Amino acid sequence: MTADSNGSGPVRPQDDLYQFVNGAWLAEHDIPADKAIYGAFHVLRDTAEQDVRAIVEKAVAAGHPEGSDARKIADLYTSFLDAETVERLGAEPIADQLALADAVSDVPGLVAALGQLELEGVTGVFRVWVDGDAKKSDEYIVYLMQGGLSLPDESYYREEERADVRAAYVAHVAKLLELAGRPDPAGAAERILALETRLAANHWDRVRERDVTQTYNKLDRAALEALTPGLGWSRWLAASTVPESAFAQVVVREPSFFTAAAAALQEIPLAEWKEWLSWRIVHSAAPYLSSAFVEENFAFYGKTLTGAPELRDRWKRGIDVVEGSLGEALGQLYVAEHFPPAAKSRMVELVANLVEAYRQRIEGLDWMGPETRQRALDKLGTFVPKIGYPDKWKDYSALEVDPADLIGNLRRSVAVETARELAKLGTPVDRDEWHMPPQTVNAYYNPRQNEIVFPAGILHPPFFDLDADDAVNYGAIGAVIGHEIGHGFDDQGSRYDGAGNLNDWWTDEDRAAFEARTDKLVAQYDALSPAETPGQHVNGKLTLGENIGDLGGLAIAYVAYQLSLAGAEAPTIDNTTGPERFFAAWAFAWATKTRPEEAARRLTIDPHSPPEFRCNAVVKNIDAFHDTYQTTEGDAMYLPPEDRVRIW
Q1: Other beta carbons within 10 Å of 187
Q2: N or C terminus: fewer CB in 10 A for the chain?
Q3: Boundaries of every domain in the chain
Q4: What is the C-alpha to C-alpha distance for residues 287 and 112, in angstroms, rounded to an integer?
Q5: Would the pTM count as exceeding 0.85?
Q6: Residues 6 or more apart from 223 whose CB is under 8 A from it?
Q7: Using CA atoms, how far apart are residues 403 and 78, in angstroms rounded to an integer?
Q8: H or E segment at 386?
């Protein structure tokens, strides 16, 4: 047993599974100075980062042929590490963009500038991307989403408790504008905050943003123009090189924001828009300019917002740049060295058992009627697992990389990726595409393709270990697999059918029964407050989808573990039973320390609950946990059976 947080004695799993498993780790580890949060996930990410660094440095040393992906990786990394050139240039790399902003003379010119800068990686008042149509998942369509803010969330502009952050933000904007040689930086910073505050007032909040039905608003071009009077989309399209045909139909996620933004373009003085546009240019480039820009950018977005006291080493930031521009080229090299075929075979077996466990649980649900149950089983039968790496790799032949031109490299990368995305329009949806490179320590569910994706990066200890006992693998990566499958059946994913289309396959009675259970889960999490942020609570509605994923994922992973035993008794290893090892593996996956500033930021913007609650709040609802540790009414982890939330 481990000591409790104040060292007064042993912690029992019946009182705090998270501390029981992780108390020693938490006591022995400090958050690295360049991090705001540190835990099992981050240890594995550090390992992957070092592995990728070795690959990149090998590419630099090898002198690969001009035009090869390995040479592009080497040259891009070299351009970032060339601090001497970066320091010498100062703000010169963005002089042309700032001149573009200065030359704006009217609203049409402003719209055109926004379009041109979009192509160069400077995001404007809204975001644009291409994805499968949520109601015609075999077709691509353009999505439009609210934007324009430089603080993490619309709430930062209105909540009184964020006043200190807003004051720090104004000082930060003024400092960066001064470094860039802009006029009246202090006054401009105040006006920029006011402009963004107006945009933020019309932003949809994050809970509303999660609603996949409210955010699906398909409009033809005439309706889009009517929604945004005076904006003039043709100017934006021409300047961004997006063809007019791309906007024949679009999905606008937040229509009311776009109407308000179009009005703001007309009503806010042009001089203030030009100041804001200059700020967006400087803000976008600051991490890649000379040290004065980098350090000031970190002082606000690192120290102030997350609490991290030190800037990450230059090589780490350089790896991020390479991954952002050449992720799959780097991933192909990573897979060759760090993902053996046996790992993929073992994962195929794990996934199959998790799917079978879900099938058994769905068949046995007492709250779901036969019609909805059959449709749920039909959807489950169409899940597509992707493990390790893509079957075909992205082509980076169009990207030109100059080892002496960092900003130019980044702009060219944005242009290449924009062209890649636009080329999808009018073609069949590519169901082989991945949305994370293989070296990523993460996983995802894509509802429009009904796929669960597990990059090679996460398929290492403590989540997955070829040499580990099944109980450990099912408690860790098994729960991750179950979590991603669970997203197909969470409050939003459950609105998509097996073909990836928004399609209500539920009876009204079954949806009501489902929501009665999810409402109880919302209430459970609303009551939780992290130790790092006393008085600040989890938003149960914001985190609902992830909480459903965690709850279903772990419950189903336990069923799958039992299936893997094929009726045999789980072995006792080091005096622990199979179920105890299963729950310990789950708990250790969430071992995490978080700085208070970062904990507060995540409560506002993160759809995941804090790590300790991802551990303890979930297991409280799982009968197998209570059976394993024989909890009783006096135990802190005890939850009466009638209060336990059982969904899947």
Answers
A1: 12
A2: N
A3: 17-30+343-390+434-643, 92-288
A4: 25
A5: yes
A6: none
A7: 6
A8: strand 384-388
Confirm if 355 and 485 have CB atoms less than 8 A apart. Answer: yes
For residues 260-264, average pLDDT: 98
371-411 confidence digits (pLDDT tens): 999 999 999 999 999 999 999 999 999 999 999 999 999 99
Give the SS3 label for residue 215.
coil
Q: What is the largest CA-CA distance in the chain?
A: 77
Q: Which of 554, 540, 556, 515 is nearest to 609 (CA)?
A: 540
Let me know if 397 is exposed, middle or buried by CB neighbors in 10 A (0-12, 13-18, 19+): exposed
- Measure the CA–CA gap between 421 and 142, rounded to whole angstroms: 10
Domain 17-30+343-390+434-643: which topology? Collagenase (Catalytic Domain) (3.40.390)
Q: What is the pLDDT of residues 218-238, one digit of tens each?
A: 999 999 999 999 999 999 999
- Quote the CA–CA distance of 193 and 166 in Å, as a whole number: 8
Q: Check: CB of residue 438 under 8 Å from CB of residue 457.
A: yes
- From the list 282, 240, 4, the residue with the least C-alpha distance to 130 is 240
Side chain identity at residue 589, one-letter code: A
Cα separation, 49 vs 34, in Å, equals 14
* Nearest C-alpha neighbor of 197 from the set 166, 165, 231: 166
DSSP-based three-state secondary structure for 574: coil
- Please tell me if the domain spanning 17-30+343-390+434-643 has the same topology as the one spanning 92-288: no
CB 460 within 8 A of CB 43: no
Given strand 126-133, what is the order of strands in its sheet?
126-133, 136-146, 249-252, 218-220
Q: Cβ neighbours of residue 68 under 8 Å, at least 6 residues apart? A: none
Token pair 């996983």: residue: 443
Strand 384-388 to 451-455 pairing: parallel
The rounded distance, in Å, linking the Cα atoms of 374 and 352 is 19
pLDDT tier for residue 215 given thresholds of 50, 70 and 90:
very high
Pick the CATH number of 92-288 from 1.10.150.20, 3.40.1620.10, 3.90.1150.10, 1.10.1380.10: 1.10.1380.10
